[in-house]
């Protein structure tokens, strides 16, 4: 057996592996030099970068992208999702998606933002435009013992999150008197009897049709979406 060529091949393989490892971990060629953040709306890219705390100067291959994503979500509750990717040879890119409020809860002089999943993710001093405020007044409801405030909040979020965009922009308030007594207050002093959060998608479609058919009406009822009604002016 000719050992010389075999040993030479093995030695070459070891050298190549060692050289590759050195390039990835030991050299300055493939190290983190630039970190970018995209997808922000309310937040700034600088806030995302600060929360990510990517170790600039470290070998790109050794950066734990899962840890970076976890750090961003933990430090910035407004972030719904974040994707950290390596941008060879010297970058890390952060693509974020912010939570969008569908409902506001008044708290002293501030407003708590709630997303479509029911997550309360931030408190702001000024109500964002086009997001309705919750009015919860179910203390005297016979169903109050069965449906606590968290369950009623869930129903309100379900309704607010299912509203077609044009209607959501015109919804000023979501009033909850009980599980099956939800009323929307729209701009122009108009009101909508919604009922419960059940069949909210169908109710949204029914209300859209009603608003087009009776644009001057002041009161709408979509509690039974197959038999919607409009009245007043």
Automatic annotation (TrEMBL):
Transmembrane listed as a keyword: yes
GO biological process entries: cell division
InterPro entries given in the database record: Cell_div_FtsQ/DivIB_C (IPR005548), FtsQ (IPR026579), FtsQ_DivIB (IPR050487), POTRA (IPR034746), POTRA_FtsQ_type (IPR013685)
Membrane topology annotation: Single-pass type II membrane protein
Keywords carried by this UniProt record: Cell cycle, Cell division, Cell membrane, Membrane, Transmembrane, Transmembrane helix
UniProt family annotation: Belongs to the FtsQ/DivIB family. FtsQ subfamily.
Function text: Essential cell division protein.
Record's protein name: Cell division protein FtsQ
Gene for this chain: ftsQ
